[in-house]
Amino acid sequence: MEFVTPEGLRRDGRRPKELRQLKCEVGVFPHADGSATFNIGNTQVIATVFGPRVADSRGESSTDRAIVKCAYSESHFAAGSRRQRKGRGDRRTAELASTVRKALEETILVELFPKAQIDLGIQVLQADGSVLAACINAAMLAVADAGIPMRDMIAATTVGYLESTPLLDINHTERTGNGPELLLALHVNQDKAIIITEEGAVNPETLEGMAELAEQGCKAVGKFLRQSLLEHIQRHATVRGLTVK
Amino acid sequence: MVCVGDRIDTDMQEGFLRGHGTQVLDGQLVATECGLVERVNKLVSVRPLRQRYSAALGDIVIGRVTEVAGKRWRLDIGARQEVSLQLSSVDLPGGAQRRRTAEDEIKMRTIFKEGDLLSAEVQSLHADGSIALHTRSAKYGKLTGGDLLYVPAALVKRQKHHFTNLTTMGITMILGCNGMVWLAPTHEGSSAAASSTSAPEQTAAKAPASAAEREAVSKAANAVRLLASLSMNISPASLLNVCKVCAERGVQAKDMLTASFIGAMLEEESQQRLQTSL
């Protein structure tokens, strides 16, 4: 299959350095402490946050910081073909959950909440590539909605490499090309990489190109996330009659 | 208005104090929460619009007993830290003032048991962040025969009186600072929600509320739900305002959460704000 036409267009009509359409909504569930949905193209993820609250088990909790727990699940109808997974016990699921957890643990100021626990719930409704990046973005929005202090804004994107072109934000069709895939989660304002994972063999020069593109992508996503959060605050502050300068 | 990671401008003043929701990075003040910047003299802090309840001394809260532990009850009030109510900080049945004996400890379940709903006051905040409550007043204690609502804690502002008698509606309202709101019909003789520790049997044996009382409670409850869904501040005044608009338009309690009434309420609110700003 040809993934990039000679004119430099991808199968869905995007340029190699183009993101899919971004959409998000903050504060979707009134009963969670924080919640958000995040869409990138056809990928759709819902994240909820409960906490900080007293840790369930004293053995797991730490006296100087909060622990972060993450429950990840993918709907059976999320991917193209309806397939039965073993559910939560799945190894892939466990790995995704632990990556999201690590990203947020690095971001949340956990040392402010000793003996506490923060629960993240991630539900993938539609999986069309870049799922993990979408999960991290959704989780960040939900945590921000819950008013939990964070070191910095976090934003994540995926970059693929097919037909000697780095492709930003690859979708499901491009993943079937079995090229290398790089995930980058960035603290946007501090330019600090939080998570870098790479699958598939690449040479160092290619990787560098991919990382650079991923960084640009993260910044674009970060800008969008910041804008959405500010709009959300603006709306709520107006309703409550708080002064906004 | 700031978002996580934004720089907060501190140029106008020499020196600043780092408040909640901020951190210092390379001598610059940076927000760690999304919300509104508040400046009090040199103290700069960010106030988020929604956050889990963090207790302050003297707050009136509503909570549910989750565990009876030795010499204390553990409560769920939706806070960040552990919450306990010591046996020594409740009124004993009969109003006796004396040392708590081991016998009292054994009979703790006769005062409050798991699942009971209480109103209480924050007595102290310990160094490790845990919260201690007390119910040493006739107005605090077990709550029965009413309606409990959960709203975001940020919508309940601290005010002079958290126990209010809405005489026009015949309702007693307890506004918990932790975002739990209790609504119950007012009963003659007892000013606050049927107090409780002295005579738990009495409250249980009380006659069921009449249809009119139940309707008044549901009306007030729907008014609170409406305010919460619009994320407007919840206070006796705002609640009465919703009920007033409701009465003006002849809307039944069951129709208060329909889109048409919510629209009407928003219209009314914007009218009022226009008038006050003029």
From TrEMBL, chain A:
<feature type="domain" description="Exoribonuclease phosphorolytic">
    <location>
        <begin position="152"/>
        <end position="216"/>
    </location>
</feature>
<dbReference type="Pfam" id="PF03725">
    <property type="entry name" value="RNase_PH_C"/>
</dbReference>
<dbReference type="InterPro" id="IPR027408">
    <property type="entry name" value="PNPase/RNase_PH_dom_sf"/>
</dbReference>
<dbReference type="InterPro" id="IPR020568">
    <property type="entry name" value="Ribosomal_Su5_D2-typ_SF"/>
</dbReference>
<dbReference type="Pfam" id="PF01138">
    <property type="entry name" value="RNase_PH"/>
</dbReference>
<comment type="similarity">
    <text>Belongs to the RNase PH family.</text>
</comment>
<dbReference type="InterPro" id="IPR001247">
    <property type="entry name" value="ExoRNase_PH_dom1"/>
</dbReference>
<dbReference type="InterPro" id="IPR036345">
    <property type="entry name" value="ExoRNase_PH_dom2_sf"/>
</dbReference>
<dbReference type="InterPro" id="IPR050080">
    <property type="entry name" value="RNase_PH"/>
</dbReference>
<protein>
    <submittedName>
        <fullName>G1738 protein</fullName>
    </submittedName>
</protein>
<feature type="domain" description="Exoribonuclease phosphorolytic">
    <location>
        <begin position="18"/>
        <end position="149"/>
    </location>
</feature>
<dbReference type="InterPro" id="IPR015847">
    <property type="entry name" value="ExoRNase_PH_dom2"/>
</dbReference>
TrEMBL record, chain B:
<feature type="domain" description="S1 motif">
    <location>
        <begin position="56"/>
        <end position="136"/>
    </location>
</feature>
<comment type="similarity">
    <text>Belongs to the RRP4 family.</text>
</comment>
<dbReference type="InterPro" id="IPR004088">
    <property type="entry name" value="KH_dom_type_1"/>
</dbReference>
<dbReference type="InterPro" id="IPR003029">
    <property type="entry name" value="S1_domain"/>
</dbReference>
<dbReference type="Pfam" id="PF21266">
    <property type="entry name" value="S1_RRP4"/>
</dbReference>
<dbReference type="InterPro" id="IPR012340">
    <property type="entry name" value="NA-bd_OB-fold"/>
</dbReference>
<dbReference type="InterPro" id="IPR048565">
    <property type="entry name" value="S1_RRP4"/>
</dbReference>
<dbReference type="InterPro" id="IPR036612">
    <property type="entry name" value="KH_dom_type_1_sf"/>
</dbReference>
<keyword id="KW-0271">Exosome</keyword>
<protein>
    <submittedName>
        <fullName>G921 protein</fullName>
    </submittedName>
</protein>
<dbReference type="InterPro" id="IPR026699">
    <property type="entry name" value="Exosome_RNA_bind1/RRP40/RRP4"/>
</dbReference>
<keyword id="KW-0694">RNA-binding</keyword>
<feature type="region of interest" description="Disordered">
    <location>
        <begin position="190"/>
        <end position="211"/>
    </location>
</feature>
<dbReference type="Pfam" id="PF15985">
    <property type="entry name" value="KH_6"/>
</dbReference>
